[in-house]
Amino acid sequence: MPVLNRAELTRTGVIFVALLLAVCATSAAAREFRAADTQPEDYPTVQALRYMGALIAERTGHRHEIKVFHSRQLGEEKETIEQTRVGAIDLNRTNVALNVLAMPFLFRSIEHMQKVLDGPIGSEILGSFEPYGFVGLAFYDSGARSIYNGVRPIRSVADLRGLRIRVQQSELMSEMIRSLGAEPVEMPYGLVLTGLANHLIDGAENNWPSFVTTDHYKHAGHLALTEHTMSPEVLVISLKAWKSLSADDQQIFREAAARSSRFMREKWHDLEEQSQHKAEAAGITVARDIDRKPFEDAMAAIYAKAGRDPAAAALIERIRKVE
Question: Is residue 154 packed enough to be buried (19+ CB in 10 Å), middle (13-18) or exposed (0-12)?
Answer without folding.
Answer: buried
